[in-house]
Each structure stands twice: as structure tokens, then as C-alpha cells.
Write a structure and sequence with these properties.
Distance between the termini: 81 Å
Helix content: 40-55%
Radius of gyration: 35 Å
Number of helices: 28
Largest sheet: 11 strands, mixed
Number of strands: 28
Structural class: alpha+beta
Bound molecules: adenosine-5'-triphosphate
Length: 877
């Protein structure tokens, strides 16, 4: 029955309807030019030129197949990405909490919710601790709603009043709760609304938009040139139909109609490659922006560090203890700092009490399984439980019954839990940042007794906590208060200070190299953390974000700093500590005002606005919340800074590739158009037949351009400064380069036609065949040269892009077949074998690529000698 309900739930989760493949294939024929070609083929057939008609027809179909394959590939890639980023839910199955795709929930499932979760279904609460949800998507109510599991509602209560329910499409902003699913997918309240809305079309990326604009300019330029050539042919007495077929073929060949599809494929494949490297791009346009990022603001915990906490120091009862042991195994001892000797924790009641507070104000689980000890939940809390277990102190679910809880909230930097002991007494346990907890303490536990806490002692304890923080430890203060029985409200005041716990979270091995590589790439790394300034600075120095002289700025200092002054300070401060989500937002705006392109990471619920405001919002896949993932452009599945830097590198590579094939297509198409234009102006016969033009277009544009789109990122992408975000796809100087390369191909074609033709009409067919081959091969060689603007082919290595090599060989063989296979010749208007003319073809088609490669070498020399001169010049010149 469960399976059946499961299936129903799936059906109810309406997926956007998929257009069947055959319809998408037929869609390829919707383009106007294609239809004009079909008409041309029909007219040719009527005029009894069946061979040309079949050839044109075949090319039309081949073009459609290629376009279809490109689009299929793009669609599949996008689909795979959509599946990767589908929402998840935490559900109790077989008595254990598991994470499953939200689509697999069925009514009756028990789900667990905490701050930052997207509610995955409609559900009835069975427990709620300070649970608040944001329901604006559903009810329009902007302020979060307090939820209560104990209330029983009147039937027919308004949606916004049903505070014992949580609703799909809303998100948890604070607290924790459990609920039983009542409806899923389209059967939910949200589904009912979603069903009414039409699916939104995907907006084009800025790059796609700029390419479309560029495409339009090209279309009109080409059409104008084609019209000139057509008019000249007519004027010289060409037949109307003949000229018509020529003009249409040229238009098809010259207009890069495949560009949008190739761009989508390059983007989507790049994004898939990034997903394999654990960086999930949620919006395609972000790929472009990634390449322009100039400031990377990163969290500390989990991103720069491993998020594997171990308690190293405990201060309790005015004594300090070092804790030994590694990992999550609760094996280790407590060594007194003053004597350097291990102590028996049971003889140290203050130490045990501090550990008890840490273990009872705690939701983490520590378990022993087949693979050794594992923990789940917040790593900070897990570390406290492991440390307590080292002294035999149990905690978590094994402790006395929880009667009240305020879960950890990064804005408040504290958490409290009240537990009722079997004899009726209730203790409030509280832990959090030392500056938050110490002001709430009025007493201190010393030698098993409670003493008043003086102002001076408080200062001493704060200094002690700063000392621990300076050793890169994350410090938590622990406190408690005893009540005779359950209270209507638990005041967090007059607490008894129990101790400090300092835990180590080592930096990731990859962090330092990743930071170095981002600096080399002209990207400034900045740490923004909720942790203590000293801890932050110590870790920042460790991973290379801060130098020995750099300072840290705290949230409080930020508050005191006006916007203008802040802009100035940003230039010199690499670490921000004890900041809240609002500070993050302010920092993003401040950098953006200074013209920087900002990438910002975040994990908490409140980080969502900062992520949205950043040019690239980055959420954490492991430790992050659904809400930040929703707001983000990029999700780091492993929370790792190195993954982020890798994504920037990929983003730059993808953008480069798009530029490469745009340049390639434009240069080669310009070559073809110029060849025909020069011939028409000179009054020569056509150097290429329409069918030959179409064929060249098919073999050189389709596969080689796609293969250029999957070029691996160049070795030096991370040694260049970021690309200015509004830089055009083709700058003026690049435009000149492209044109010059087009002129070279055209020149090769013209020269070879001229040499083979000799003004001898009997040699016309042969001369066309030579030009046909020269134009095809010169362009294919270009594809190899366009792989890099700076590196020559021997430097790149032929094998580094096997796709392009494959496309090159395949297209080369197809062209060879077109002229050398006896049965194929009539289709392409080829008279006889080329024979010794192959030598001419080889020389003419290798000439342009040789010039391009030699130019790279010469420019390399010039660059190096200039750089050398700059280094020799005395400083300041
Ligand atoms: P970031 O991830 O932004 O680099 P962080 O993870 O170190 O920083 P937060 O998780 O916001 O920062 O923690 C801020 C402070 O709150 C910590 O320095 C610590 O004192 C306190 N804190 C962290 N976790 C808990 C917890 N589970 N219970 C109580 N207090 C906590």
C-alpha cells in the first residue's frame, strides 16, 4: 500500500510536460531559411535537376539532425541539473532519520524540521520548539508565524491561522519541530496555487542575449552582401532560379544559425562538468559571472576548515585541562595544565559539571557502528558530546526529559535547553559565545560550590576565552541554572558559569593552495565569520587570507563605521568576525559600490538576502539550509573553498570556449562570403556551387564548433585578471583579428581558384573542386588553431581535446569522400579526381593556419621581451 501511495504521490507531483522527441525534431524545420531551401530543392527538381535537388534535400535533413542532436544534448544536460537540485526532506524511516528527495514523501511520514529548511509537504505538527515559519509565498504575510503543536483548530480555520500545521512552499526561519505529512505535491495548498500558475519560461542568459544581438547584426550584413552578389550575378546574365538558389545557400552558410544551440550546449556541458566536481550551478547565467568575480567572501567553518571539531581545552572551576584523543572516538584523558598530569575526571566535580552542560544542551548523536564511531548533527555539539563521553558523562537524548528548548541561532550565538530531572527539579542549560553567556551569569562554580561572579572575574574569563581563540580554537561558554520545578518561562539570567570549552577545527589541506590560486587570478579572498575575532584571524593567517600585519574588523566596528569610511577600510581588511547576516548584506553592497563583482558564501537562514544581493550567491551543500540553497546561484556540494575556486576556473574556461567558437564561426563564415564577393566583383564564374557552400558549412561548422565548446580550460586561466563583466564578446581589436583571419581563408580560396582555373572554361569544374577542398580544409585547420589565442598547437598538444580531433578527422574524411568517391561526385558537382591538384589544395589550405600559428609565436616573443624589460626597469618607472 505504501508503494501505491508512493506512486500516487509521484503522479501528484506534476512535472512540467515534456515535448516528445519527434515533435522537437520537426521543430527544426520551422526555420524560414530552411523552408526557402526546401522550396529551392523542389524547384530544382521540377527543372529536372534531380541530383542537386536530392543533395540539397539531404543537407536540409542533415542540418536538422545536427540541430536536433545539439538541442537534445542541451535539454538532457539541463534535465540532469534539475534533478540534482531537487529538494530534500528529513524523514523518519525504520526509526532513523534519513534524508530523501521530497518527491518520495507520502502522507503519514514523520518529518523533522529545523531553521533553514524548506517545508517539503503539508504536515501536522507533533512537536515544536520556538518554531517559526515564513509563509509569505502562500499567504502574503511578510512576518514569520509562530507555530504551536499543542493547539487544536476549529474546522474551516483560515490558512494563515492554522498554526498547528506547516505548509509546503514555506520555510522554517527559527526553531525545531516534528510533523506528520498530511498532503504532498500537487495535493498541498501550495500545489493548488502552483497549478494555477503557468510555468515560467527560462530567461535567456545575458550572454545569449548579447549573442542574439550580434547574430542580428551579422544576419543583416550577410544578407546585404548576398544581395550584392546576387544582383551582380543577375546583371551578368545569370538565370533567376540559379541566382536564387545561390543566394539562399550563401545565406544559410553565412548566418551562424546554430550559435544559440552551441552556446547552450557549451554552458550546459560545462555546468555538468562542474557538477561532477561538486559545484552545482543553479542558474546558467552565473557561469559567465563566475569568470568575472573579483572578491570572494567566504565563511570559515566547513569552507576553510574541515568542520571536524574536537574539544582540546576545558576551563572549569578556575583550572584548565587539556583533552587528549583524536577524531570522534570517545577515548582520551584530561591533563591538568598547571601540573601537566592526567587527572581522574570523576574527582573533578567542576570539570564534570561543565562537560554535563555541554552534553545536555545538545542535539548531536554519537554512535558506535560497524565502521567505528560516527556523529550526526551540529559538529560543535558533537565535539562536546565526545569530550563528555571521555569522562563518562552521557548527554543528548539519553539525558533527562527536555521541557523547553531555544535552538542555536547564529544571530544570538547561544542555545538553551531545560531538562526535568526524575526528582522534579528542572535545570536550564545554556551554551554560546563567551561575550553572550558571561553577562548573563551572576555566579560561578568553584570547587563544587556556587560563588558570586565579580566584574573582575568576568573580565578574566573573557581574556581567557580570547587567549584560547588566539590559538585558533572555537570557544564556547557553558552555564546553567537550577529551578525547583517546571517554569512558565525560563529567564536566561542569574546563571551559574560552569566553564569554557575550546575546540579545534583544523583548516582544510586544500584551503591554502585554493587561496593562493584565487590571488593569482586577481580575486581577493575575504573571510566573514560569526566566530571570535581571534579564532578568525588565527585561521585566516593559517590559510593565507591574512598576513601577519592584517587586522580583523568585528560586527560592532562595522556598525560604528559610516558607509564612506567602510568603503575605504574594505581595501585593507581581509577578515570580518562576529558578524551577523545584516553585516554580510552591508558588505556586499559596499563592495558592489566599489565596482567589485562579489561572490559570497552563506549557510544560515538569514544569509539568504546577502546571497541574493551578491553577484554570485553560494550555498553550502552539506551544512547549508534549503533557504540559502534556494537563494544561491551556486551550491558547493562539499562546502569546500577549493571547489569554489575550481568553479571560477571552469567558469572562465567555459566563457573562453564560447568566445573561441564564436570567433571561429565568424572568421570562417566571413572567409566564405568574402571569397564569393571578390569573385562576383571581379566578374569571375562562381568559385563554389551552392551545394558546395552548403556542404562546407555542414562539415566545418557543426561538429568542430561543438568540439571547441568542450576545450579544457587553458593552463593560464587562473593567472589572468578577471574579465570585466560588461566587456563585449568581441572587442574592436578582436573584430579586426577575426576579419583578418577571414581574409586569409578567402585569399587562399581565391588564389587556388585562380591558379587552377587559368581563365580556361574547360577547367572550371576542376577549379571549383580545388576551391571546394581548400575552403573546407583551411577551415578545419583553423578549428585546431582557434583552440587558443596564445598557445600554438604543439604547446597545446593534439590529444588534449579528443572531441575536436575526432570531429577534425571525421569532417576531413567526409570532405575527402565527397570529392574522391565516384558515386558521390555528381552530388557535389565534382567532375573528376583531383590528382596532382591535391598538392595545391594542401599548400593553400595550410597557408592560413601557418600564418596564424607563426603570429602566435611572434606575439609570444614580443610579450616576453616587453615583460622582461618591465622587470629590468627600476621600481617606480
Ligand atoms: P562561519 O560558518 O560563519 O565561518 P561559524 O560557524 O564559526 O562561522 P556560527 O556558527 O555563527 O559561526 O557561530 C558563532 C558563534 O556561536 C560561535 O563562535 C560559538 O561561540 C557560538 N556557537 C556556535 N555553535 C553553537 C551551538 N551549537 N550552540 C551554542 N553556541 C554555538
Amino acid at each position: 500500500r505504501v508503494t501505491q501511495r508512493h506512486e500516487e504521490a509521484r503522479v501528484a507531483d506534476r512535472e512540467p510536460p515534456r515535448v516528445p522527441s519527434w515533435r522537437r525534431f520537426l521543430d527544426q524545420f520551422r526555420e524560414l531559411v530552411i523552408w526557402i531551401l526546401v522550396v529551392a530543392a523542389l524547384i530544382s527538381a521540377l527543372l529536372r535537376e534531380p541530383v542537386e535537388a536530392i543533395a540539397i534535400g539531404a543537407i536540409v535533413v542533415l542540418n536538422a539532425v545536427l540541430g536536433f542532436l545539439q538541442e537534445e544534448r542541451a535539454a538532457r544536460a539541463l534535465e540532469a541539473l534539475r534533478r540534482l537540485s531537487s529538494p530534500l526532506a528529513r524523514v523518519v524511516r525504520d526509526g532513523e532519520v534519513r534524508t530523501v528527495p521530497a518527491a518520495e514523501l507520502v502522507p503519514g511520514d514523520r518529518i523533522e524540521l529545523e531553521a533553514g529548511d524548506q517545508v517539503p509537504a503539508d504536515a501536522r505538527l507533533i512537536a515544536a520548539y520556538a518554531l517559526r515559519t515564513q509563509e509569505s509565498a502562500l499567504t502574503g504575510e511578510a512576518t514569520p508565524v509562530d507555530k504551536d503543536a499543542a493547539v487544536v483548530m476549529e474546522p474551516g480555520a483560515a490558512l494563515a491561522d492554522r498554526i498547528n500545521l506547516v505548509l509546503m512552499g514555506t520555510s522554517v526561519v527559527a526553531g525545531r519541530g516534528s510533523a506528520v505529512v498530511t498532503a504532498t505535491g500537487m495535493a498541498t495548498e501550495f500545489g493548488a496555487i502552483a497549478g494555477m500558475l503557468e510555468a515560467e519560461a527560462r530567461p535567456a542568459t545575458p550572454l545569449q542575449r548579447r549573442l542574439t544581438e550580434l547574430g542580428q547584426v551579422l544576419v543583416w550584413t550577410c544578407l546585404a552582401i548576398v544581395a550584392v552578389i546576387g544582383a551582380l550575378q543577375l546583371w551578368r546574365g545569370g538565370g533567376l532560379l540559379e541566382v536564387f538558389v545561390l543566394a539562399v545557400s550563401m545565406a544559410v552558410a553565412a548566418v551562424p544559425e546554430g550559435l544559440p544551440a552551441v552556446v547552450t550546449v557549451a554552458l550546459a556541458l560545462g555546468v555538468q562538468r562542474m557538477a561532477r566536481h561538486k559545484a552545482l550551478v543553479r542558474r546558467l547565467p552565473s557561469v559567465e559571472t563566475l569568470g568575472s568575480v573579483t572578491v570572494v567572501c567566504t565563511d570559515k567553518t566547513g569552507t576553510l576548515t574541515r568542520n571536524e571539531m574536537t574539544v582540546r581545552e576545558v576551563v572549569a572551576g578556575n583550572r584548565a585541562f587539556h583533552v587528549t584523543g583524536a577524531g570522534y572516538e570517545p577515548e582520551g584523558s584530561f591533563v591538568a595544565r598547571e601540573s601537566g598530569r592526567p587527572v581522574d575526571p570523576h574527582a573533578e566535580s567542576d570539570l564534570v559539571q561543565a562537560l554535563r552542560v555541554g552534553a545536555l544542551c545538545n542535539n548531536a548523536r554519537v554512535e558506535h557502528g560497524n565502521g567505528g564511531w560516527t556523529v550526526s548533527g551540529d559538529p560543535t555539539e558533537a565535539a562536546l558530546r565526545v569530550a563528555a563521553l571521555k569522562a563518562g558523562v552521557e548527554g543528548g537524548a539519553a539525558g533527562p526529559q527536555v521541557v523547553h528548548e531555544i535552538p542555536f541561532d547564529p544571530e544570538r550565538r547561544a542555545m538553551s535547553v531545560a531538562r526535568q530531572h526524575p526528582e522534579g527539579m528542572v535545570t536550564l542549560y545554556m551554551k554560546g559565545a563567551a561575550e553572550v553567556i558571561l553577562p548573563l551569569c551572576a555566579f560561578e562554580r568553584l570547587g563544587g560550590a556556587v560563588h558570586p561572579l565579580t566584574g573582575e572575574r568576568r573580565r578574566e574569563l573573557l581574556e581567557e576565552s580570547a587567549r584560547l581563540a588566539g590559538r585558533a580554537l572555537r570557544v564556547l561558554a557553558l552555564a546553567y541554572r537550577e529551578h525547583p520545578g517546571p517554569q512558565p518561562a525560563y529567564q536566561e539570567e542569574e546563571l551559574v558559569f560552569a566553564g569554557l570549552a575550546g575546540m579545534l577545527d583544523p583548516p582544510r589541506d586544500e584551503a591554502r593552495p585554493a587561496i593562493q590560486s584565487s590571488r593569482a587570478a586577481g580575486i581577493r579572498p575575504v573571510m566573514i565569520t560569526g566566530d571570535h575575532p581571534q579564532t578568525a584571524l588565527a585561521i585566516a593567517r593559517d590559510v593565507g587570507i591574512a598576513g601577519p600585519l592584517d587586522r580583523v574588523m568585528t560586527g560592532r566596528e562595522l556598525d560604528a563605521c559610516a558607509d564612506d569610511a567602510l568603503g575605504e577600510r574594505l581595501e585593507s581588511v581581509p577578515v570580518f568576525a562576529r558578524v551577523s547576516a545584516e553585516h554580510k548584506l552591508r558588505l556586499v553592497h559596499a563592495w558592489k559600490r566599489r565596482g567589485q563583482v562579489v561572490a559570497m558564501t552563506g549557510d544560515g537562514v538569514n544569509d539568504a538576502p546577502a546571497l541574493r544581493a551578491a553577484d554570485i550567491g553560494i550555498a553550502m551543500g552539506l551544512s547549508g539550509t534549503d533557504v540559502t540553497r534556494e537563494a544561491a546561484d551556486l551550491v558547493l556540494l562539499d562546502d569546500n573553498i577549493a571547489t569554489l575556486v575550481g568553479a571560477v576556473q571552469e567558469g572562465r574556461g567555459i566563457f573562453d570556449n564560447i568566445q573561441k567558437f564564436v570567433h571561429y564561426l565568424l572568421a570562417t563564415n566571413a572567409g566564405e562570403v568574402l571569397l564569393m564577393l571578390v569573385a562576383a566583383l571581379a566578374g569571375w564564374p562562381l568559385p563554389l556551387l551552392p551545394i558546395q557552400i552548403l556542404w562546407i558549412n555542414l562539415v566545418t561548422d557543426g561538429l568542430p564548433a561543438l568540439a571547441l565548446g568542450v576545450e579544457p580550460p587553458e593552463r593560464d586561466v587562473m593567472q589572468r585578471p578577471p574579465r570585466p563583466p560588461r566587456a563585449p564578446i568581441i572587442s574592436a581589436s578582436e573584430g579586426i583579428f577575426i576579419l583578418a583571419r577571414g581574409v586569409m581563408v578567402a585569399a587562399a580560396g581565391i588564389a587556388s581558384f585562380w591558379l587552377a582555373y587559368h581563365q580556361d572554361p574547360a577547367r572550371l569544374a576542376q577549379a571549383r573542386t580545388v576551391t571546394f577542398c581548400v575552403m573546407a580544409y583551411a577551415q578545419l585547420f583553423y578549428a585546431l588553431a582557434f583552440r587558443s589565442r596564445r598557445l600554438t598547437l604543439p604547446q597545446l598538444g593534439l590529444h588534449t581535446n579528443p572531441h575536436l580531433l575526432g570531429a577534425f578527422v571525421l569532417a576531413g574524411l567526409l570532405q575527402l569522400g565527397a570529392v574522391e568517391l565516384g558515386w558521390a561526385r555528381p552530388f557535389f558537382g565534382v567532375g573528376g579526381p583531383l590528382g596532382s591538384d591535391w598538392l595545391l589544395v594542401a599548400m593553400a589550405s595550410l597557408a592560413p593556419v601557418t600564418v596564424v600559428e607563426v603570429a602566435k609565436i611572434v606575439r609570444g616573443w614580443v610579450r616576453r621581451s616587453r615583460a622582461g624589460r618591465r622587470e629590468e626597469a627600476p621600481a617606480g618607472v
